[in-house]
Amino acid sequence: MILCECEMVPASAVDAIVADAPGHEDHMTLRAIALRSRVGKGACQGAFCSARVTSHLYGRGIYEGTEGLEGTEGLHHMRDFLGERFKGIRPVLWGRQMPQMELAEALHCGLMGLDFLEDDEAGE
Fold this sequence. Notes:
Elements: E1 2-4, E2 9-10, H1 11-19, H2 30-36, H3 49-59, H4 73-89, H5 97-111
Antiparallel strand pairs: 1-2
Helix pairs in contact: 3-4
């Protein structure tokens, strides 16, 4: 299964990154995975793959308190990751990129509510 279509990163690559991080696999962040792969570095800048990779990590039980996906640790990691990706592209948004970023914002804020996460709940 491909988790990042822009950079063609399969789930097996994410699994290998988690497996090669002894002692850290139980609190693996999206940023750590992106540093070891091309996740979030393609045209969408993580707009779609961040949710896929986070969901995959929840499914593997990487985040604490994920019985029925109740924990918010993964969502905090995703919000932080997307914030870092957006910092680099915000100054150059223009033309066709603007609607794509508005769609990403609608997905992340409207659908997932990442803008309403409380900072003091972060699992860091």
